[in-house]
Specification:
CATH class: Mainly Beta
CATH topology: PH-domain like
Order of helices and strands: EEEEEEEHE
CATH architecture: Roll
Helix content: 10-25%
Shape: globular
Largest sheet: 8 strands, mixed
């Protein structure tokens, strides 16, 4: 990626964000700066989500969508308009640069004879 990935100011992408309270998607701008991750609802011009980059714990990318986990495991779900996989790759690259989170890994945990994990 280019030098803009190192920029302290926010890089912004147009995304579709899942609104779980309404059960619908809303058009948003996703901004990731060196300090914040924020979603701005394009219809109302209101911030509908924000957290510190330090609170981002990980992300799960799909070809055209992305879950961003923060805090104690809460998440936001966003989708690239026109199902553009390049947008998701750019967002993931920015998350790698600006947060201490990591891409999620699926794993199977085994239990011992006592039923304990590990």
């Amino acid at each position: 990626a280019g030098a803009e990935q190192q920029s302290a100011g926010a890089l912004v992408w147009r995304v579709l964000a899942q609104d779980y309270s309404q059960g619908a998607e809303m058009e948003c701008l996703l901004g990731i700066s060196n300090e914040f991750v924020a979603l701005l609802d394009l219809a109302t011009k209101e911030v509908v989500f924000n957290c510190f980059c330090a609170d981002v714990i990980g992300w799960t990318p799909d070809s055209c969508s992305l879950k961003i986990f923060y805090g104690r495991g809460n998440h936001i779900f966003i989708r690239a308009p026109e199902n553009n996989p390049e947008e998701v790759k750019e967002i993931v690259q920015r998350l790698r640069v600006m947060t201490s989170g990591a891409e999620t890994v699926e794993m199977t945990l085994r239990r011992n004879g006592l039923g304990q994990l590990g």
